[in-house]
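Q: Protein A?
A:
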Amino acid sequence: MKKFMITAISLLFCTVSMLAQTTIRGTVKSKEDNKAIAGVNILVEPLKTGTTTDSKGNYVLRNLPYGKFKVIFSHIGYKTKTITLKIQEEKTEVINVYLERKPVLLEEVKVTASLTEHLLKDIPMPVGVVTEKSIQSLPYFSPSDAMDKLPGVNLMRDGIWGTAVSVRGISKQNLVYLIDGDRIETATNHAGGLSLIDMFDVKQIEIIKGGISSLYGSGATGGVINIKTKVPGFSERLSVSGSTASGYNSVNKNTSANVRLFASDKFWYAKLNGSVRNAGDAVTASGTELNSKFKDKSISGLIGLKLSGNVNAQLKYQNFIARDVGIPGGLPFLGPASVRYKLAYRELMEGKLNLSNLSKKLNKLTLKYYRQIIKREVELIPNPNAVVSPGATHTTDGLFLQSNFILSKNQLLIAGLDLWQRRYDGHRTKEIKPLKRIIEDKPVAPSVFRNIGLFAQDEFMLAKNKLNLTISGRYDFIIVKSDETKNPQYIINNGVKIIPPPNPDASFKATEETNKSFSGSLGLLYRMNKNSDLTFNAAYTFRSPSLEERFQYINLGASVYLGNPSLQPEKGLFFDLGIRINTNNLRFKGSVFLNNFSDLVIDDVVIPDSVFKKQNVGKARYYGFDADAEYRIFGGSSAYLNVSYVSDKDLNSNEYLPQIPPLNGKIGLKWNFEKFANLNLEASFAGNQNNVAPGEKTTPGYVVYNLSFDFYPVKFGLLKIYTGFGVQNIFNRSYRNHLTSYRGMFHEEPGRNIFAKVRILW
């Protein structure tokens, strides 16, 4: 892989050709008061490149090629402005732009869900976005909490710290999780993969609600979640800025603090970020949820370098460590059992090279390598006489190459190579104190999952730009290997180690399996008029079974769960039809969807009630709708509603599938007190869930009320101070989220939570 990287980088540099050196610079200001506007999104069409304004409203667009382009300036609270550039010679030009204030309902955010940067309104896929503004205004404990605000995305709890999400009824291994585009590969039987991310450092969360294996490969049968962290940009002169932030949540006495430093000039930028959190046991309306405390800390940094006019490099590092994290329980942790993460750890290292405007057709080329390591050490005390200590290390290496070609002003082609592998190495120790016995085994065989993917996507603008057609396809070749594994590994009796133990169970022989899969998708966006459009998406998807599904050996005493190395990929057909309306006073976005699966991996019965083995036997169908609407009452005040519904069937047994959310949504009022504060009063609701799988419990409906205030910033010298507070579950209602029946035990949701946040920018 190292030789491949060196060769690829060398070839990329050799392809760099002579470019036009046209530079456009200027300042973006408010038309009303002539004040500079920071954070303005600037997008150059059809190049799909751009920048943002710095803290003083300045921007620079460098090395633009010859041609005619549209430059789009957009910012929340201002009217979008478009200017036309015609570049015929090398020059430097100053263009100052003035934006007019306008309370808007549609946030003109840029997203990269389709592997290229677009405005959200310009992509046909069903995408939900959690913006930085939303993240900063509420006391989210993890990205999962933040995504719960979107229709079709539902929170799954395993305590306060450990959380996951369901996207249109689909969860766990059927979703691809990314941090800055890098895969988060880890075990899915415990929630927590999304909890190993510093919320203070999250800029935006993008969720594709539906199958998109054609771009993201194996696992993206139910959706993709990409969590993007904050990145500074280059500036015209030396710039140094920073921030501190802190928060408090009464529901578990959680205190948190963050410090961030940005620095930049024309040729480099850098970021250093650090956070700490410490929380006790959470309180519900009925009492304290024991063993739900946690403490964690994180540090991250990055450096960006301008190597030449059109070549940028970036190095990134992230480290997150959690200790003494309580796992409240559920199957197989019953009764008085005490379970905790002694250690949960994530480390990411990434190097990226961006080359832009290589030729008239080749607009951008990106090469990236990353390594992400996730470790977990668990302590389970089922009773005073025993201690079980499972642990594992999941190491993911990835190499990603993508090229963007502008074939014409109405056609953009992207193509690339996606190589990644996940390596698993785990153990489990059982100590039986009265017998003075220690047993070591392997819950999953030491194994590796290698994936080579080739992908391409073609975007067309047709019918005088009224129709956007997107076609994508991907071919994946997957190799899965495992070592021979016998359980138990050894036994220690009264201090005497026995290797090999007598009569070990031959769990798995050394194996090697291959999967070859093709996936494809079609997306259409038809603009009926300037205020409304229709979207349609169809996709053929796949998921190659995980290492745990292939090689697990879980012996719970009364029951045994076995993997199957010969499993074949799951296959899916996904359809989505949507409508979007955006006027001065109304924003509406709604979709109906259908997701069919075949060859689902399930636990098939080998011996009733005692031995289960993974098999490809399942067929399932998910269908439903989600909608999101907001209506401006006057000025910056509006009322909003989102709602979602999903139904399902196991097509083999004609039974319902487990952990499907009921009809649910949110209704609220955003009230703007001019130059003082923004108020948000919200009711979160869910209906009864009576359509449950065999053995699954029903849950009643509920309504929970929340209130939050965000005050306008106060300037104090060079400081800008933001404050906010609020109350969640105002009436301290006792209720249960149907999806929080994690591992078979229901947990009551947190009770009343009074929170406060302070953020200081300088």
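Q: Protein B?
A:
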Amino acid sequence: MAPVPTCLRLLPLLSLSIVSMAAAAADSQTDDEPLAQLIVTATRAPAGVALQDLGSAVTVLQAQQLRTRQVRMLTDVLRDVPGVAVSQAGPGGSVTQVRLRGTESNHVLVLVDGMDVSDPFFGEFDFAGLVADDAARVEVLRGQQGALYGTDAIGGVIHYISLSGREAPGVSSRLEGGAFGTADAAARWAGVDGALDYALSGGLRHSDGSPSSRSGTRKLGQENQNLSGRFAWEANDALQLRAVLRWARSQVDFNQQDFNWGSPTYGAVIDSDDRSDTRRLQGLVAADWRTVPGFWTQSLSVQGMQAERESQAQGLRSGASRGIRVKGSYVSTLQWQGLGAAQQLVLLADANQERMQNLQPDSSLEQGQLHQLHTQGMAVQYSVLWSEQLAVAAALRHDQNERFADANTAQLQASWHVTKALRLRAAAGSGIKNPTSTELFGYDPLTFVGNPSLRPEYSRGWEVALEHSALQGRVLTGIGWSQSRLRDEIYTVYSPSFVASPANRSSVSRQRMLELYGQARLDGGWSVDASYGHLSARENNVAEVRRPPQVGSVSVAWQGVSTGLHATLRYNGSTDDYNFTDNGPPIVRLGGYSLLQLGGQWRITPRWEVFGRLENALGAQYEDVYTYRMPGRAAYIGIRSAL
């Protein structure tokens, strides 16, 4: 097991020390303010909510951070967020799950430019298909958000937001190559032309890959292509029209597990000849109109997606699925001043239809049926802000579902600026997760049989945190604690013939988490970001798998006039996982590991910049999923242009 780096062992103490130093520095300041940012994910109001008025925990990864750390796959930088655990089943392109605060991966709602991008067939999002862009920001909202979003947001919401033409105008391109036969290219064209704001981007990524089997030699390659467009048109002073369109295709090699009785590698991943082809098309159109400027705003949106997946084994079609989602939403926002406070009322209604079909070649007529799920919900959200010192918000939602009983979820949060530098925040809420199509109807009568009698999962929890800002908001540190309870958790039951089927647990799952975080934007171009999370996630007093009790990250960057350097150290503590082999106990311990990334860039002309990075610089040998080995040390170099 990899030892915990000394700096991460001391991170809680260092964080408290930073708080003390920042407080001392604040004594000589008279105009300290917290870092001011607008968070669009934490409210359904179109204008967003100021970070300093938010009671829920949120981490914002700005475009500059993504650019400095040379992020290509979003999961790399998500490891820098407290409360996030990443499970990747092999090299880049392999199935990748993200968990928030010890919840399941399908308990996380994933949005891209406001669109729900989870696969309707599988009920969750595979992060291996999301290639990050330099011109984007990420909001990670933690805690139960069912009152705002309905199903799926038990653990929180991860929102990937591409920048508009006004936020990042110009023409840019990037080309890089490096380890594992990797070639990556991307281009972007964005700007404002009169009343039209536009941003177009596209990318290609190829990798020969690396082996995933412990004893195998087959390299798992990948091909990713993506195109996206984001548009906004100010029709007049009162009406804005918006549209988003995204297309992506991922062709990825993968290996199967060996389930041949008597095999020495039984249950482990072995070299095979499998390949998957996934295509996603997503779109959104919306209209925002200021019915009464400064008082009443309305928004109407319709979004849709189609996800198609096909797998091949030895050149023959071995599996396929299709999922389609159409979602409509109406939001009405009223805001006014009264009783010495700024007040806001948000009324919303939405409807969601999902269609899924198993297209596996050998599926039965029952297994291959087209299934549909319909849900509709209504919610109200009220917030009030007194003198920029105390903010309180409450939300209540009612969801109707044709298959399950109606569900109610709620949320209450508050933010209190005890002083100009010290803020106390708290939140409590609930969330639901409806069973997925796969869980309800299955996909293969020989391996996985559905259970139409499943009940939705239900979670409720609370959190409290203390934050301190100093040096005019350039230094922020915080410590938070959260607790959650999940009932009716859906798990997998295996019959004596190893046919799997889901069921609801009768016991309660509990999650408790301590989060420490800090960031500093210092003179001389220096920036520091640090986070640490300590998790206890137990089901019936047994630790849950793939949820490391300790996760930490420290990132240091320096930006000069034409040169920049960065170093990021990420630690993933030891964790439990399932053992499907016939050797050892059913639950095994995966060792902890440390990932060090080093990189830099050099602007050779006003237009051109060269960059490079070294990933896994320590050469760690590790696994996120038992028997699936991860890539070793890798170096990349590239060039970027901007007009």
